[in-house]
Amino acid sequence: MSKKPTRDIEKIYPLDEFVAKLRRLADSIENHEPFEIQIAGERIYVPVRAVYNIEHEREGDEEEIEFQVRWTRE
């Protein structure tokens, strides 16, 4: 397994692109298929064994919901 550099980015997408990505992700999960997505120029391959969770954060007047997908590279 090759060592990949650490990466922590946040990319804002237009609403229609965000919806399309969520829809593709949901379809992949529902069909038990791997998911591929390109984020800020890098193609990411999400395996079927990934774990999904939803996180809610609140600080002051701001609230945030994060849909998280986690896995370990093999």
Explain this structure.
- The protein is of the alpha+beta class.
- It has one domain (15-70).
- Helix content is 22%, strand content 38%.
- The protein has 1 helix and 4 strands, in the order αββββ.
- It has one helix spanning 15-30, and strands at 35-39, 42-46, 51-59, 62-70.
- The strands form 2 sheets. It has a two-stranded antiparallel ribbon with strand order 1-2.
- The longest helix is centred in the N-terminal third of the chain and has 16 residues, at 15-30.
- The protein is globular and about 40 Å long.
Largest sheet: 2 strands, antiparallel
Give the count of helical stretches.
1
H/E element order: HEEEE
| Radius of gyration of CA atoms, rounded to a whole number | 14 Å
Strand order of the largest sheet: 1-2
The first-to-last residue Cα distance is 7 Å
Helix fraction? 10-25%
**What's the number of domains?**
1
- Number of DSSP-assigned strands: 4
Strand-helix topology:
Elements: H1 15-30, E1 35-39, E2 42-46, E3 51-59, E4 62-70
Antiparallel strand pairs: 1-2, 3-4
Q: Which descriptors would you attach to this protein?
A:
single chain, 74 residues, alpha+beta, two-stranded antiparallel sheet, 1 helix, 4 strands, globular
In brief:
The chain is of the alpha+beta class and 74 residues long. It has one helix spanning 15-30, and strands at residues 35-39, 42-46, 51-59, 62-70.
